[in-house]
Amino acid sequence: MQHIGNKRWITTGVAGLLMASTTFLALPVYATPSIDDQLNVTSPDTTVLSPKDSQAIAATRGKGIPTGGGACLAAGSTASITTPPPFLKLPFRERDGAHSLWDSEGWYTSPDELSIDNETNGDLHGANDLELTRQADHGYGMPIVAATSGRAYYSYQYISGSWTDPATGKTHQVGWGAGLVAEVRSAQDQPGNPGWVTQYIHLSKVAPGIPYLQATSVNDPNDPSHPDWYPAGLIQDDNTLWNAGVPVKQGQIIGYQGDTGIGFDWKDNFNPVTGKVLPRNRVAEKAWDPPQLHFQLYQGRINGAKQNIIDPFGWYAQVCPGELRWTDLGTNPYTPIPGKVRAAPQGSVFMADGHGDLLYAAK
After folding, report:
1. 150 phi, psi to nearest 5 deg
2. pLDDT in tens, 309-345
3. What is the pTM of this model?
4. Side-chain-facing half-sphere of 167: CA atoms under 13 Å
5. For 12-40, what is each residue's pLDDT tens digit?
6. HSE-up of residue 40 (Cα within 13 Å, Cβ side)
7. 355 Cβ partners below 8 Å, 6+ apart?
8. Are 155 and 215 in contact (CB under 8 A)?
9. CA distances for 186 relative to 151, 183, 200, angstroms
10. Neighbours of 201 (CB within 10 A)
11. Helix, strand, or coil here: 57?
C-alpha cells in the first residue's frame, strides 16, 4: 500500500468534466486518480516528462502507435505497438446516445479538474469518461452494452480520500474508486498476443448472469466501520479471468450507467458477498461527478499491471503520464458537441459507417 499525501494505493491521473446540472454538487473543480492506475497495482508514481519529450508525445496524436509494456514514449523513440483493426462499437444504445453522448474526459486530464487530487495539468487519464448529457440525470440507470463480444465478469473498488474546499476550509471525504467495474475480454490470450480487454467503470448495477469476482476489504483508518474495497478478483492471470467470465455478444447489456465509487461524504452501500451496491438516496447523497461510464481498452496484464493501454478513438498514442502542452488542452477532439462522437483518421479501433460516423453496439 502506498501513501502519497492524503491518497492511498496508486494515485495518478484524474477523471470527469462536469457538465452543467443542478442535480450534482456545484464543486468548483473535481478530480480522481486514474482508474487505470488504481487497478494497475504495480504501476509507478506519476512521471513528469521534459518539454522536449512532451512535444514528442503530442506529435504522436492520431498515429495509433502507443508504446507498450509500461514504457513512456521518449523523444526520438521508435517503439510501437500495432493497434488492432477496428472491432469496437460505442457501448450504448444508439437511441440513448445519438444526441447526448459526450466524452467529458479523454486521454488527458482537463485543466479544470486538478484541485481535489492536487493533479498536474496534462496528467494521463488514459481512458474516456462517457456521459449522456441530454438525458435526464445524465442517463443514470440507462443500459451499458458490450463494445465487443467476449467473456465478461466484474468486481468492486472503493478508495477513500479527502478534499478541503478552498472556499470554506471544510474537509470532505471523497471516493476515488471504480465502484462496480466490469470487463469484457475479447479473446483468449495466445502466446505473445494477449487478448484485448474493455473495462466499464462506475456502473450503478451489473446485468444478471455476469459473475462477481471477489473484492477484499481494506481498512479505512478514518472510517473503520466502513472499509475500502480492493478488486482482488480482477488481479489474476488472463487465462483465469477468461475462464471465469461468461460469453457476451457485442451489444448485449452488461450493466447500467451510474456513479458508484465516487462518493462525497458517503460511501456506496456495497455487499461483498453478493457483489451488489444497494440503492441510495441520490438527492441527499450526491456524487462529486455526474453519472458516467469510464471506458478503457488495454491488452492483458503482466503481474497485475495493464499492458498496452491505448486511446481507442486514436486521437492520442501516449500511454504513460507526462506533461501536455497548454495549447493542446483547449479542444475536445472526441465530441465537439453532444452526440457527435469522432475518431481520428488513423489509429481508431471503433467501427464506422460509410460516412465516418461511429457505430453503436445496439439500437
Report:
1. 165, -145
2. 888 988 775 444 333 333 444 567 788 889 989 888 8
3. 0.78
4. 4
5. 222 322 222 222 232 222 233 333 333 43
6. 28
7. none
8. yes
9. 7, 10, 14
10. 29
11. helix
